[in-house]
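Still learning folds. Look over my entry:

…
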Amino acid sequence: MKKIVVLTGAGISAESGIKTFRDADGLWEGYDIMEVASPEGWEKDQKKVLDFYNQRRKHLLAVSPNAAHFALKELEKDFDVTIITQNIDDLHERAGSSNVIHLHGELLKVRSTFDEDLVMDWNKDLNIGDLCDFNYQLRPHVVWFGEAVPMFQRAIELTEQAEILIIIGTSMQVYPAAALLDFAAPNIPIYFIDPNPAMNAHQNLKIIQEKAVFGVPALTNELLKQK
């Protein structure tokens, strides 16, 4: 099977009702990003950080995957598909995608502040006093500003193997994720789906200036027909 790697960003989830990470004013749903998405913010006010992600978690559980998520699942009929997402939601998984790499963590998981490899599923509120087996506070399993991106090396390896690259709903301006494009093999087809594309010219790049719910199903149908 031909290998397709899909890079997804906030734009694909926004169409399910999840707000994009950073608004034009630099706030995330009214919060200063550094207060709720940095180790410094966590050290300063753990309750504020936990409350923020509790709200995000409740909202995530109330929304559903959209047509773009389901279309990517359809690609698995004839292609070896891996999704590398910057999103912390589970909408790709709920739509049925089998191989999803989360660069920035997962909202429905938490981890120990003692051992970052001690990760567990979590779909309720996380509060002060919720502890791991070693009696250390649990925190959201989310990569904050200033923290390493542990899945990035794996994402590089997968991108290097791609025979088709699809980019959906991301500005490709945020690093390190934006650097993945540099690891794609020369001459492979690259599709960029976004209503406001901001990507520089790139070899074999085809821009589809549509929202994900329209552009992804259309591209999926085109690729499946070619197969």
Summary: The longest helix spans residues 46-62.
